Sequence to fold (271 residues):
Amino acid sequence: MCVVDLLNLNQRFLYHLATTESRSRLMTTLNWIIVSGVSMSSIALVGSLTLLLRQSTLEKVLEPLVAIAAGSLLGGAFFHMIPAALKANLSIVTIGILIVCGFTAFLLLEQYLHWHHNHQLPIKRKEPLTYLILIGDGLHNFLGGMVIAGAFIIDIRLGIVCWLAAAAHEVPQELGDFAVLIHGGWSKGSALLFNFLSGLTFLFGGLITYILSFQFDVSWLIPFAAGNFIYIGASDLIPQMSKNKDTNLKSKAVNGVAFISGIYLLLLVMP
Fold:
């Protein structure tokens, strides 16, 4: 065998190795997207806790959970997503525009679909509004699935961190949403089922992003997602922390510590 043949054989081996590694990475990314989507949908089942605990107990638990979620979302945006966008060779101006777009997208979602994250227990609502809440949450979860999948495609570690921050915020949301559905006339089984189906749009959004990633660069989703996280954390969750006028000084201190803990946890897992 001549030297040329050896070189050609070596090139074919390296190409096969690179192709195999690439396929393996793609499958790993797809698996993470599927697992994260199903897991996020399953969080809807925590809403059943509203049936087991007293309302006063749930209110005490919800406020610190909301505070942790707010800190986690802001920490995820500033410590992980924006630095990842910079590493993706996006210009500072482009990153700034995409952050504003992500922030504005969720602002419009709230304003025009009357969607909001319900983190309080519960207010008596008319049943038609419960359908609107499910539609709004479904669209919100679909967008969330897209941006989290984009994070997994860029870097699996980034995807895990972003998923954890998003999941921290989903727990209090699902508790509140389930309570609203029950008070809107839904049966327990129907409320759990449709809350879960609404959460499944997270998986669909992730799969669509994965498919599109073969044709388009999805790195722009990272700063867009950072804008989403900043909006939910700063404009939705933080106001909820101070909305209850009856909160005493001790509760405010607990909420403050929970908020800082959420930020610190995301700081600890920085690469």
Remarks:
- The chain has one domain: 44-268.
- The CA atoms of residues 64 and 128 lie 30 Å apart.
- The first helix runs from residue 3 to 42.
